[in-house]
Amino acid sequence: MMEKIHSTFDISTLNMANSKQPEPEVQSDSDELMIEYVHSIETKKEKEGIIYLDSGAGQTVVNNLSLLSYPVGVDKQINNFSSPVKVTHRRTLNFKGVSLHPVFCVPDGPVNLHSISQLCDHGLKISTKSNMIKSLPLFIKRGNLFQLKIPKMQENPVYSIVTGNHDWHVTLGHLSDGYIEAMLNTGRIKGKFTKSSVCDVCKHAKIENCPHSKKLPMVMTPFFKLQMDTLQVSPPNWKGNQYLLVIIDYFSRFNRVYPMCKKYEAKKHLESYLDEIKKLGIIPAFFHSN
Questions:
Q1: Domains and CATH numbers, the chain
Q2: What is the rounded average pLDDT of the residues 9-18?
Q3: What is the per-residue pLDDT across 102-158, written as a single tens digit (0 to 9) for each?
Q4: Furthest-apart CA pair in the chain: how many Å?
Q5: Are strands 243-249 and 255-260 parallel, antiparallel or unpaired?
Q6: What is the rounded CA–CA span in Å between residue 170 and residue 191?
Q7: Which residues lie below 8 Å from residue 16, measured CB to CB, with a gap of 6+?
Q8: What's the pLDDT tens digit per position in 26-55?
């Protein structure tokens, strides 16, 4: 997208307008930049007197070498226009505190072309009105870096309500009373709560923790001795799994658990587990099962 400013460009009309002062603790290197395009007293070539703003151009190019500060000669081509044009110089286009770089001089270029994307890369945004263009700082600058002040976010509590015959204890998988109390203390949860002491499922499924009276048998080799058991879960989960195949390694005491819908699925899970062990070059010597 290319926007044409229908007036003559005079470099002497560039000026800086005062903007709102930043917060005291932050130093700003650039104020509001005002670029005005008015009819020049001097007669200039049309291609040197009209400037275009292009949101698709990657670089800013001018065909008037006097617009660049301390230009340096180069020999290259640039594709800002429909066909490549020769670049003779490059340097910086200065606007009293704001410097665009690199800017290329293309004497054979059809127009002066300002890249909007390059201005945005320098922390500026563009707004146009009639024959005036405003370039406003997007961020406050600290040295050569742009500083973005993130506004404070006001947290909105989210209240979840469980209705009907279900409550939080059941919905969260028969959560323990301690976690339920922690949720209540946040003040953000509403709904029905049931203590595990009055939950029929918890009465039958949960038992008191009892320490082992004897020292558990240990082995010195991983996967030398394995223990397997099948447990039934009631009620089944939402996938229909109502059995658990548990395999315990006597060396590490780590366990592998496979959920199952039917007991006969234990065969494929056990074969898969043994195949993993064989890849390590180990074959179990003892396998206990109830």
A1: 2-147 (no CATH), 155-209 (no CATH), 225-289 (3.30.420.10)
A2: 34
A3: 888 888 877 777 777 777 776 666 665 555 555 455 555 566 565 656 666 665 555
A4: 105
A5: antiparallel
A6: 12
A7: 31, 32, 33, 34, 95, 96, 97
A8: 333 333 333 333 333 233 344 445 666 666
